Amino acid sequence: MTMKVVGQRVKRYDGMAHVTGETRFVDDVIVPGTLTIKAFRSPVAKGNIKDLDTSAAEAMPGVAGVITAEDVPCNAYGLVPDQPVLVEKAVRYKGEPIAAVAAVDEDTAVEAINKIKLDIEEEKPVFDPLEAMKPDAPKVRPEGNVFMFGERPFRQIILGDVEEGFKKADIIVENEYLHPSLEHAQLEPQASLAVPDAGGKLTIYTVSQALYFHLGQLLGILQMEPDKVQCKQWAPRTGSSWRHNAGFSDINYVGGTVGGGFGAKNDIHADHVTALLALKTGQPCKWRWTREEDLLYSTFRGAWRMTIKDGITKDGRIVARQIKSIRDAGAYSTLNFYVVDKHSFLAAGPYFIENVYVQGYCVYTNKPPASSMRGFGITPATFATEVQIDKIATQLGMDPWEIRFVNAFRKGEHTATRRVVNSVALVEVMQKLAEKAGVDLPDKLMTMTSTERG
Amino acid sequence: MYSLEFTVNGQLCQVAVDLKTTLLEVLRDKLFITSPKVGCNTGDCGTCSVLMNGKLVRSCITNALSAQGKEVTTIEGLAEAGELHPLQEAFHDNYGAQCGFCTPGMILASKALLDENPKPTREEAKEALSGNLCRCTGYGKIIDSVMAAAEQMAQAKS
């Protein structure tokens, strides 16, 4: 049977529109009378707002609306709703939005922003997660600087008994790995356009990579159906503002055309502010972040500090692996805890290790909130564990290829979370890679298979 | 205000601009030609690239009045008589476009290259496109597309 798509080279369904320039990204949607939004952002990393005066901005000709925390019906959002749309009192990172202006053009909006007066009591911030974990550290958040995974301050994964495993080992290799923060630098900056209709309903053009998550969160923020949506300022992990089915007909959420995301558009950056200003002014409102804003204040891959202690027998078999990872989450939870979850589940790598102990910490600091980026927390873990394998090889005087072959998953084995792996081909993939790279591996490695542990 | 008269994709246009208006603003905000993008607005990413009298320029840092009397081409102006330019075909066929945000600028930069150097080496193509950023493809497929278009255009000529 000939398949139409499977096994065939298929052109991109949107490719023709891309090469002719017809693809319409959010900023390419032009609606007459659209106001330009600019944000007033915190000049300090941590502080307490004493007074905010937007009267001069509001009085300016050409300014259609100014919003502050007071204008946000439910000023807490996120999967764990802990992040304000606009800061009311406590500033937690430099650049955190405090107010936003909608004006006839960009120059007027910028001028209005410059007329906003802020009286803020600056406080001592904390930037290093290790410092933030100390008991006397400045508090990034009232509930503490370490995210609670249930009753534990870390995500815990236990398989077997690492201490027993270390006893069986011939050598112990322990190293610390640092992974810096990374910006997605997707070419389309954060952008949003909200167009109100006479009935108070909204059409929002979004760059979102997670339409339904964000639609639910927006309904929570806007409280468009107050009976159905409850505001929770700070709730435990189960109390999310995310609601299915609530007020879907009030927002026509238009998305799907994303000018690069890589995880940068898994959190709401602009849609809430454009929606609020569109509802307040009754006019279409567009907010396109500058590249500078995007680089400085949008989410990014948070930094990691990973300590790996491995117990290895002389034949190269890893018999115990203990990992302690600390994620620098920035000021809010966003998707950080899920990033730490995935990191912890898979940090032991594509290797069958019988004794594993992982502690994944998610620590708040006074930096812009980190969040998802390609691979969530797995990519930094892979960096650390693969460098670790090379170090093990050096210490044992073995070929690093051999360590990987000896430990690779075989069919029917399981991960640290006891998930049985039935479709594995790491051994075969490595054999192919070696061939392609012109690496001459010994027969004992080239004859191994993923179906049995030799 | 000043009167800017120039040709865009073969059509004569007259637009009122002030001294700080950029060519990108004229194209997007006044003429509603949205294929040149606002990627960085500081001349670094290349998503705003257009051709001015056949030369590649970054429209976000090009003063609008410098286009006075000139011919500007955006990607909307590449197809002739309903036929796509070989570069457009090649980018589509070789997966040179992924999210599409850099694509208009990337194709115009490629056109500027092929107009000057119809048979570039891969290295020359890389060099010519080095001012246009792409975060999706890793550039490999883009260079493949340019080389395929050059080949196609050479065959069409002979």
Protein described:
The complex is a heterodimer of chains A (454) and B (158). Chain A is built from 13 helices and 15 strands. Chain A has 454 residues and is an alpha+beta fold. By secondary structure, chain B is an alpha+beta fold. Chain B has two domains: 2-77, Roll (Ubiquitin-like (UB roll)); 86-157, DNA polymerase, domain 1. A five-stranded mixed sheet of chain B has the order 2-1-5-3-4, with helices on both faces. In chain B, a hairpin with a 2-residue loop joins strand 1 (2-8) and strand 2 (11-17). Chain B is globular and about 45 Å long. The termini of chain B are far apart. Classes of the chains: A alpha+beta (454), B alpha+beta (158). Chains A and B meet through helix 1 of A and helix 2 and helix 3 of B.
| Biggest sheet features of chain A | 7 strands, mixed
- The number of domains of chain A: 2
Residues in helices of chain A, as a percent range: 25-40%
Mean pLDDT of chain A: 93
Global Rg of chain A = 26 Å
| Envelope shape of chain A | globular
Chain-averaged pLDDT of chain B: 97
What is the count of β-strands of chain B?
5
What structural class is derived from the secondary structure elements of chain B?
A: alpha+beta
CATH class of the largest domain in chain A: Alpha Beta
Element string of chain A (H = helix, E = strand) = HEEHEEEHEHEHEEEHEHEHEEHEHHHH
CATH class of the largest domain in chain B: Alpha Beta
What value does the Rg of chain B take, in angstroms? 15 Å
Strand order of the largest sheet of chain B: 2-1-5-3-4
Total domain modules of chain B: 2
CATH topology of the largest domain in chain B: Ubiquitin-like (UB roll)
Q: How are the strands of the largest sheet of chain A arranged? A: 3-5-1-12-9-10-11
Category by helix and strand content of chain A: alpha+beta
Report low-confidence residues of chain B grouped into runs of 5 or more: none
User: Count of helical segments of chain B?
Assistant: 5
Low-confidence stretches of chain A: 226-246
